[in-house]
Amino acid sequence: MICCLFYCGTEKVIAQNYPDAGSWNTFNVEYGINNKLTGLFTEECRIKENFSRLNLFYTNMGIEYKITKYFKMALVYRFIDKFQDDNSFSFRHRLMLDLTLKNKFSKFGLSYRQRLQAEERDVYSSDAGKVNEWYSRNKFAVKYDLDKPYTPYASVEFRYQLHNPRKIESDQTWHRVRYVFGVDYKLSDRNTCGVYYLIQKEWSVLDPQDQYIVGLEYTLSF
Predict the structure, then answer these.
(1) pTM, rounded to two decimals
(2) How many helices and strands (H and E) does the chain possess?
């Protein structure tokens, strides 16, 4: 068991890190409106507590705009149903602005995505429901083109907490990293499936948790 030692204000706080395993299962739809615009839709179900308990569902709806061959931006709204310990659901609303740079060098495809996200939860439950959580997320990814239907990739993402009144001890700090290793398989021009393994580690929070995730994806493109 890993222990994380840090300070909250002037008090010393000790938090224990409890690892967990789960699965994320994703269905994506990408609809090309024209050469520049693409409509985006995603449904995802996440399982936690060693594959034994529902964590959340979410739905993404958004649009992506290709500015140049190497630069694109996207605006996405996410509605989240998060399952609580008392078997109720917490309803959350998230808005994400993505800016992505990508380029290809020989058989390697490199990309960097900067995401700014704001989220509210249980908006009508109390005054606390009106509180915005702000995060900046920086993701670096690499793909390797094998000239085959399958494409291996890897990525790392760092999350920075701009402001979250519910976790004030983490404000203005980097506090989470995700490592992903996976492979996409192109079934046809419109159909792609994928599998990946994700490791998430946290620090500088009161309740840090390491997560080990098996992910399955299916993408339908028009």
Answers:
(1) 0.87
(2) 0, 13
